[in-house]
Write a structure and sequence with these properties.
about 20% helix; single chain; two-stranded antiparallel ribbon; alpha+beta; eight-stranded mixed β-sheet; 2 helices
Length: about 140
């Protein structure tokens, strides 16, 4: 039996670079993100996680809109299925966003460092392929 959690992740872009955090437990360079709480909207979870982990206020590139009486939530760019451990997976809703406020103050509880990465810096061998590809797409999307 596989246990699956829903998570939300944001590739945060500013001035042609995307922010990666050195995850304390996993020792991997990852964009900010985390678990979606019960009854929390995924797009709200994405914004909350960025705020908690980085101190930054972001705006998702895919805006939330209305269709008559119905809310159209910010649409994730894609949804990844990530193996975390044996029998444990994350269904990760991936968003792109740009910085609109706040100040970069990484959470020392969750991260051992952070760095802004240009598209070419994402080619570094210590960055996983999904992070490299999505990071580059985020940088392009934020510029258009």
């Amino acid at each position: 039996e596989v246990h699956r959690d829903f998570t939300a992740t944001v590739f945060v872009v500013q001035e042609g670079r995307t922010l990666l955090l050195l995850h304390k437990k996993l020792r991997l360079w990852l964009p900010p993100g985390g678990h979606i709480h019960t009854n929390e909207l995924p797009c709200d979870a994405a914004l909350r996680e960025v705020r908690e982990e980085t101190g930054l206020e972001v705006q998702l590139l895919q805006p939330r809109t209305q269709l008559g009486e119905v809310s159209v939530l910010s649409q994730p760019v894609c949804v990844l299925l990530e193996k975390i451990a044996e029998g444990h997976e994350h269904i990760d809703l991936i968003y792109f966003g740009r910085v609109v406020g706040g100040e970069l103050t990484p959470s020392i509880r969750e991260t051992d460092g952070c760095r802004w990465n240009s598209a070419s810096e994402l080619d570094h061998p210590d960055i996983a392929e999904d992070i490299r590809v999505l990071g580059k797409k985020a940088i392009l999307a934020a510029e258009s």
